[in-house]
Design goal:
The complex is a heterodimer of chains A (about 325) and B (about 260). Chain A has 10 helices and 18 strands. Chain A is α/β, with parallel strands linked by helices and about 325 residues long. Chain A has 2 domains: about 5-180, Rossmann fold (3-Layer(aba) Sandwich); about 205-325, Rossmann fold (3-Layer(aba) Sandwich). In chain A, helix 3 (about 75-85) packs parallel to helix 5 and helix 6 (about 220-230) packs parallel to helix 10 (about 310-325). The chains are: A alpha/beta (about 325), B alpha/beta (about 260). Chains A and B meet through helix 5, strand 7, strand 9, strand 10 and strand 13 of A and helix 3, helix 4, strand 7, strand 8 and strand 9 of B. Bound molecules: flavin-adenine dinucleotide and adenosine monophosphate (AMP). Flavin-adenine dinucleotide (FAD) binds near residues 257, 271, 272 and 296 of chain A.
Amino acid sequence: MAEKIIVLAEVQNGALRKNTPQLVDVARRLKSNAESRIILVLAGPKIESVATEAAGLPVDQVVRLEHDQAWQGTSEEILETLHAARQELEGDILVLGNTSLGKEIGPCLAQRWGWGMISDVIRLEDHQGKPTFIRPCYAGKVFDEIEMLQPQFVLTVRSNAFPPAENDGRQAEILERVIALPKDALKTSLVEVVERPTGKVELTEADVIVSGGMGVKGPEGFEFLKPLAEVLGAAIGSSRAAVLAGFIHPSHQVGQTGKTVSPSLYIACGISGAIQHKAGMSTSKCIVAINKDPDAPIFEFADYGIVGDLFEVVPHLTEEFRKILQS
Amino acid sequence: MKVVVLVKQTFATEARIELDESGEIISSRVKKVVNPYDEFAVEEAIQLVERKQAEKAAVLSLGNTETQEGLRQCLAMGVDEAVLIDESGMGGADSSITAELLAAALKKIGFDLILSGYVAVDDNAAQVPMRVAEILGIPHVNVVSRLEVQENSVKAWREADGRTEVLATQLPCLVTADKSLNKPRYPTLPNIMKAKKKPLATYTPADLGVDLKSPGCRVVRHFLPAGRAGAHLFDGTPSEAAAALVSALRNEAKVV
Ligand SMILES: Cc1cc2nc3c(=O)[nH]c(=O)nc-3n(C[C@H](O)[C@H](O)[C@H](O)COP(=O)(O)OP(=O)(O)OC[C@H]3O[C@@H](n4cnc5c(N)ncnc54)[C@H](O)[C@@H]3O)c2cc1C
Ligand SMILES: Nc1ncnc2c1ncn2[C@@H]1O[C@H](COP(=O)(O)O)[C@@H](O)[C@H]1O
């Protein structure tokens, strides 16, 4: 069977969200034969330029969806628009990011359409010739390999777990569709949006994260980490203890009750490495720990470490990174 | 107004996970707790009753006899009644089957507002609540960090990626809790005693008349992630250690 794989691309701050090429990579791996098609769907108003960028990705078609009511920008609108476009799109597999949006609309569509669903996929494998999906459970302490028994299903994919698909030099065709929504389809209204100055890089998508814990001692400690983060173009993460102590906004918290991140490089400064913290960052490709306690648990799962006072070590690190990155 | 909270009994977050010879997760020795996110939902429900915005708060769980313990804890925190759907003998339920059973029970016991955690820390699926809302045909707000309940509607603050959204929708609806919703209380001893007399009803899937579908996916195997060998430590002065570390990140790990 030649399946049709729908990838939903998210638009963030007027640009294609960084995980989009990663989702396309997953879709390419899922193609069972040369006839399989990948459709990249964009939903929302005023996204012409984003659509052109998206069409450069190795997909067969880009479909731009709008609906016929006033856009507010809620996830419910994207949910209802995709649902209403179901016949037209005729997909078999829906690939979403494991983002706020994906976590919300994935299970809704799976339930409505009677499809299967696997959330937070980090790897694809093969079991007796059938694709299987690897996902972390129990806060990353166990991984499950899952086989899909239904032909049609939804996946949500963890950011940074797959490499980005490279542009292939061709531009895919762009279709535009305005979807008529049933009158009573939208039940939720957006009262207000508070954009948060979380720094330029969104934590869950950052390629590098500099994270601070109780060892940074106070809100000034996070200011102290900033030059290092800036040199690396990194997002700032934190432990829960640092959030509870009021050092930093909760949106920076990494861990079981915070965000799950999977950067190439995670630098933990003054973080002990509690199991609940590890839960949110253990799939990072490379973990560095700076801690003055040689017995801190973080050294058991970090790849590299320096035993020392972060206030002494971090400025040297910043300097060394600056040397290599600016040469 | 009646608030019903969906609660799941899960492994304690600090529990070590081990596999037996056949590759199954050993659960018998592990301490069980109410899923941490569900505790936020329970606390919110109790506060709604305390503020007289709701008449009654109930908890609902799909589980087995062991789950009664978690439900008793919720009763001791202050909810008025508990309902258990006993799935013993069903051999486990996936997100879709769980949602069908919970939705059927919700219809039976009645609700105006459904609260739940947004994700269970054991299966990490974050699917059940959205599926329940779909089956019941009611609106939802997912991953909420602050909630205001009005006469016929709710206003909910949620952390979407990079921004906070304030959303409004009509009752009946379903709202899932994020960690910053509130600070769950501990049951006091007198309330633990009182909880023993509060009603805890048990249904079987058959009582709910749900036609159970076969699961949509199958776990081929569980496996433990490959352990990291332990950190390579760099000694010397802070400046020497930093230089050696950055060189390793560039030349060995190739991440910068
Ligand atoms: C249900 C539940 C959920 C949780 N969820 C999360 C979560 O999502 N995320 C999370 O992070 N935690 C979570 N926790 C909390 C977790 O158990 C730990 O308490 C927390 O991670 C500790 O934070 P920390 O490492 O910053 O603080 P600490 O454990 O106090 O560690 C501070 C570290 O800094 C080091 N240090 C101190 N001074 C210096 C210095 N000058 N230079 C270098 N090193 C220094 C110390 O040696 C120590 O190792 C959760 C707990 C529970 C029960
Ligand atoms: N067996 C269950 N019984 C009651 N509620 C559940 C059950 N499974 C999941 N839930 C609810 O759904 C939320 C998300 O669970 P999950 O989809 O498994 O990640 C949990 O926090 C619970 O509130």
